[in-house]
Design goal:
The protein has 106 residues and is mainly alpha-helical. The chain has helices spanning 5-33, 40-59, 66-73, 95-101, and strands at 82-85, 88-91. A hairpin with a 2-residue loop joins strand 1 and strand 2 (88-91). Helix 1 (5-33) packs antiparallel against helix 2 and helix 2 (40-59) runs antiparallel to helix 3 (66-73).
C-alpha cells in the first residue's frame, strides 16, 4: 500500500539526510587514503546506499527508479535536472519535487 504524502515525505527526507551524511563521513577517509571507486570500502558504502535506496523506493512505491535517478544522476536535487510526470515537466531540486515525480499530488 502506498503511504500518504506526509509519510512518504518524512521517509524521503530521512533517506536523503542519511545518504548525504554517509557521503560526508566517508569522503574524507576516501580522499585521505586516495581510494579508487572500485576499492572495497568505497564499494561497501555504495552497496549499502544502493540497498537503502531500493528499500525506500519500495516503501514509497517508486516503480520508475526515480530515487536512484535523484541520487545518482541528479545529485540529490543539487543538479536540478528536469523530469516529466503525467504530461508535465518540472525541475527536481527537493523532496517535494521528488514527491511530485512519484505521483504524490495531494
Amino acid at each position: 500500500m502506498k503511504p500518504s504524502k506526509e509519510a512518504a515525505a518524512a521517509l524521503l527526507t530521512q533517506w536523503q539526510a542519511a545518504m548525504q551524511r554517509s557521503d560526508e563521513l566517508m569522503q574524507p577517509a576516501i580522499d585521505a587514503l586516495k581510494l579508487p571507486p572500485e576499492s572495497p570500502p568505497w564499494q561497501a558504502a555504495q552497496e549499502l546506499q544502493s540497498l537503502a535506496t531500493t528499500l525506500v523506493a519500495a516503501l514509497v512505491d517508486d516503480t520508475t527508479n526515480a530515487l536512484e535517478w535523484y541520487w545518482l544522476e541528479n545529485d540529490m536535487g543539487a543538479k536540478k535536472h528536469e523530469a516529466r510526470h503525467e504530461g508535465g515537466t518540472r525541475q527536481i531540486a527537493s523532496v517535494e519535487d521528488l514527491l511530485w515525480m512519484l505521483g504524490y499530488t495531494s
